[in-house]
Structure formats: structure tokens, C-alpha cells
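Researcher: Re-running this chain for the archive, since the previous output was lost when a drive failed. Same request as before.
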Amino acid sequence: MRFSPRAAGLLAAVVTVTIWTGFIVIARASAQRTLTPFDIALLRITGASLVLLPWGGWMVWRRTQALGTSAPPSSLAGISPLPLRTTALLGLFGGLLYAMLAYAGFFHAPATHASVLMPGSLPLWTALLAAWLLRDHITPQRAAGLALIVAGDLLVGGRSLLAAFSGGDVWKGDLLFMLAAACWATYSVLARRHAVDAVQATIAITAFACLVYVPAYALLVGLGMVTSHLAQAPWTEITFQMVFQGGGSVVVSGIAFTRMIQHFGPVRSTMITALVPGLSAMGAVLFLGEPMHWNLIAGLLLVTTGILVGVLRKNPAPETPASTDARRTVR
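Model: Regenerated C-alpha cells:
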């Protein structure tokens, strides 16, 4: 069955928003079950690796056949289509740190906080890093949008920080969510700076995460320095995490987001993903029974408004195909 370009773009948008929203709700629900954040990160990387590493190996092999030479050592053992330095930079922030910080945050803070602080603060970190590393100009209108995002984040995180004086630890999760968003923003800006293809970047960060995280996880668990509950978890939970976190959040959403950008363009795509904070917050209330306090509602409205103000520019600067493909935000 072949879809029209418009139908394919709409389908990609629905898939992207659904997976990004489901990631927040499911990750919080998973934190209340058997697995540890290190276990979930392992299953995310393993599930994505089963799909992407053979794909990356095929890309490197095809390039080798075309050039008539052996695979260069810079391709990370022949499974990353990008040079070793680029693979390591993107993999550190987009593959390792993001997953570990995000999953750890769900063990301290509710999904309603994550819905505001992760996808909501991503434009803030991206704009600041792009201004620093790429010399992007922050227009007054975009600055106003970023100010609204900061105000919304403070409304959500400020209450958690005040609760810390009475022994609460939700602020730890809020901080981890903000750091996770900063890591993904760093990955996005570096991907744009190096002008990498979105699919190749996804394969590269998965290859790096697999070769670094999996051996380190096995070693630390074997030494008793990290606790693992994989042996206690039912196989259905393990399989679900590999399929959704790895296959869904990494592989499917990455391809869907790229297809959405090809059809709608980066500005309209960002407007579409502005639905994620509100939908994930509603999902947390409906499916997880989390309370929706006034500060969360106000913070959510401010962040969503800030995102829309930041992208509704009258004359957006033209972008190259490479930078358009590289501007990925995620899941």
C-alpha cells in the first residue's frame, strides 16, 4: 500500500507525537515496577541495537564495496556509518547520558514533571547551545518564548525545591529531567554542526552506546557496584521494554520524525511536537493517577506558549537539507 505525501506526513506526525507521549508515561510506570533505571537503559540500547547495528553494518559494507577498500577503523568496528570522533560525541550525549539521566529521573519525580521539564525545556537548551556553538541569532520574539519556558520550568521545579527543605526528593528527578533535556539538546546541536544524516546519527549513537554501556553494565553488575533486577523481572516486561524503548522510542520515532520534517518542515514540525507536554501530562493524570496541581497547569501553559511563540516567526531563516535532517529532538 502506497500513501500520498500528505498522508505519509500526517501518519509520521501522529506516530511521533504518540511515541514521545507514551515514552514519558510508560517510563514513569516502569519505574514503579521491577526494573532499575540501569536495566531499562540496557533494554533500550539492546532493543535498538538489534535493528540498527545490522543496518549500520550494511551501510559500511556498501560504502566499502563502492570504494573498493576495507572498512576504515574510524567506523567503530564497521558498524557506525559516521567517523569515530563524531560517533563518540553524538553517542555520549544522545545515546548514553540522555537515557541514563531520563530513566533515573522517573524514579524520583512524576511523569507530569517530566512532561514539562524534558520536551518543554528542550527548545531552551537548544537555542542557548546553538547561539554559543553555531552563532545562531536569538531574535526578540524567540527570547520572549524562551523566557516563558524558563518561567514555566521554575513554576514546576520551584515547588520541588521548596519541598526539599522538608525532606522531599522530587527535586532530584526534576534536575535529572533538565539535565537529560540538556544532553539531548547538545546532541541535536552537535548533529547539526556536523551536518549528519538523521538515520546515520541514530545508528551511530546506538552503536556507541551498545559498545560502551553493555560491557560497563555487565562489569559493574558482576562486581556488585550496580544493582540489577533483570533476573526478577518477568520476560513479558523485559520484552516490552526492548520493543517499546528500543524499537519504538529510538528507531520508529527517529524515522517518523525525520519523515515529518520532510513533509511539514522544521517550523511546523516543532509546532506539532508542542502537543507532547500537554498530552503526556494528561496521560499521567488519566493512566497513572498523578495529581495535577495548579503550578503544573500554569507551568505547562507557559512552556507550551513559549514553544509556539519561539517557532511562529514571520520570516524563518532558510535551512539546508543537512541541518534540517539533523534537527532531531526525542524520544
